[in-house]
Amino acid sequence: MNSALIPNLDLRQENLALPLRMENNPNTTAVPGRHTHSLVILDNRELDRQCLAQCMAAEKADLEILAFGSIEEWKQKRDEHPPLSAILLNVGGKKIDEPAVSEQIRKLASEFVSTPLIVLADSDDFGQIVKALEYGAKGFIPASVSVSVCMELIALSVAGGIFVPASALFAMRHLLDSSNSTARPLAGIFTDRQVEVVEALRRGKANKIIAYELNLRESTVKVHVRNIMKKVKATNRTEVVFKLNDLFLSGGSAASSLC
Fold first, then answer.
1. How many CB atoms lie within 10 A of CB 114?
2. 213 half-sphere exposure, CB direction, 13 A CA radius
3. Max alpha carbon distance in the chain (Å)?
4. Distance CA 240, CA 201 (A)
5. Which residue intervals define the domain Response regulatory in the entry (predicted)?
């Protein structure tokens, strides 16, 4: 009777040993094979990055999924893995404009110019998305999407595309559609000509285009832009747009804080 139970006991022990062999190499969840490229997940939270890596590996068998706490850890083992296809930086609930996060994005984007850097975040805030792209990210994926969708969006970035959530496009559309009805708050802050330049800036137009459409010299447009930046206390064009959009959405209640 006892001898008949021994094989079953051994079988259970063998099954239990399988996941332990996966844990011996915590930085990779893909079974070694004929992978030609790899995806690196960067996240200083070990449990989060390992769970995400295992889910992604189950979705993308032809791509080796690697998980590291920092890019320095990956560099130490880069020769052990296929060429890097993309970097997925999981910032979780952190803000993109936090100094540590923004610096990390800038550094990675600058060092890996030919490798798309995609940001994964808990938020899909329009301002945070724009800042991530401004810092050099090639895509912004909200954590609300499924793993399969996440993999498709990463593939899009690898192919040369740039993905942003639909919520960001709706936010931009709302801002543009409301420009005519909310132009009045600008009257007390800017001159009539500056208001026209502001509208063009909010639409992302370059100085040359603004000069052509408003029949101005490009140097004159630059002067208007500098004066607008001073009035809203901004250091660059992107910050100007953010502050102006806040003003438009508040219907002018933020005007006093800008002046």
1. 5
2. 13
3. 98
4. 8
5. 38-158
